[in-house]
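Minutes, project check-in
Item: structure for the 470-residue chain
Input as provided by the requester:
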Amino acid sequence: MEPYEYADLDAVALRGLIRGGEVTAAEVEDVARRALARADEALNALAGPPFAPGEMPHRAPDGPFAGVPFLIKDGGPFARGVPFTVGSRAVRGAVAREDHELMARFRAAGLAVLGRTAVPEMAFSFATESRRYGTTRNPWAPGRGAGGSSGGSAALVAAGAVPMAHANDGAGSIRVPASCCGVVGLKPGRGRVPCGPAVGEASFGQSAEFAVTRTVRDAAHLLDAVAAAPVGEKYEAPPPPRPYAEMIRTDPGRLRVAVSTAAAAPVDAQVAAVAVNAGKVLEWIGHEVAEDAPGVEPDDVVEAMMLSVFAAGAMLKAPERLDRSLLEAVSRRLLAETEAATALDVLAGVAAQHRATRPVGLFFTRYDLLVTPTLARPPAPHGALAYDDPGHTARSWLRRLFEYGPFTAPFNVSGNPAISLPLGQSREGLPIGVQLVAAHGREDLLLQVAAQLEEAVPWKDRKPSVLTGA
């Protein structure tokens, strides 16, 4: 297998070739390692060197993705025996003591995990830039950011180094980099995919774990492999009527779709136009489309997101060896505000979460789907979101993030499933993502409509300037 052939295949196609005997898993891993080295040299998207062969054992040889190359995010304790830094110089010698439940499912799926992807410090930025690992570059335009906090994963998937990679999302960290890098970013709804054991459990159901992919079918097949809450999980989503991989091949029928490009922050005209066009395509397909949006107050989103601030602060306090003097400025502030917080501060965040969640729930009694831009602007230049800025409080940092990405966090607060699709490009050729949001438990509907859009507005033939094997 040549690198250009490998880079053109999604995970389902690769697994089909391995199962059919046309290529061995060892051959796929060899080409993936070469592709990963070339892509990382251009993008700076890995958190340290790739794992040595055999360093990540215990993957199922007969799993649905057996032998398919994969990466995990350096976002905290995730894989047993694997070091983590959460993108911080202050975290030293930290090693995960057990597998996250999702990591155990990745192993059962047979994924060949080759390394860790870069994140901003504490995974608390929409730009993957840190003093520990430097700047991760966008494969479409190396002078632009890859988004965050799963920017390393999204950049390497877009560049053809791996067909999909682990990502998680506390305010948009799957969908934002997916939009920046021109890939698919599914944030499952609350209770669909396990979030523990990890600090993500402390974010009051606002964090979600999954992956970024290049195709909708990979997202559907991977969700089939890892979904379902473990016994005793605080949040559970209802099971789908059939496997997602089957449902994306069926028509969801005529749906009620709302489109909104309005936000508290200015929205770039090109970005808004791509979302509006997605609504027109859905209308052409046969859905009923109107202009509308949930009435969520931006201040309630910020206050509810303080719960995630406290979760990030708890993550900072978790490592046994933490050199606070090496933390970046916003992290120091998050830690200080977490340590100063009282039970009343936490209850205020919970109350704000309820105030934001109720109008979203009511909205989805009137509509099946919401369409918005993913970001307010195309991918930002490096340094536009300066995390090491001592002028920020936790709330001012959240507001700065939401000027860039005002559309994603409300659905972390409410827990609805959402997906970013690479449906457009700017005049400069930069990716523009469109977000689809569905009601609780309706990942099936979300993926069905995403598959319709992938067929109607295909993105497979659009390639970034940094592409393995090009």
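Outcome recorded: Residues 3-456 form a domain with the Amidase signature (AS) enzymes fold (CATH 3.90.1300.10).
No further action items on this chain.
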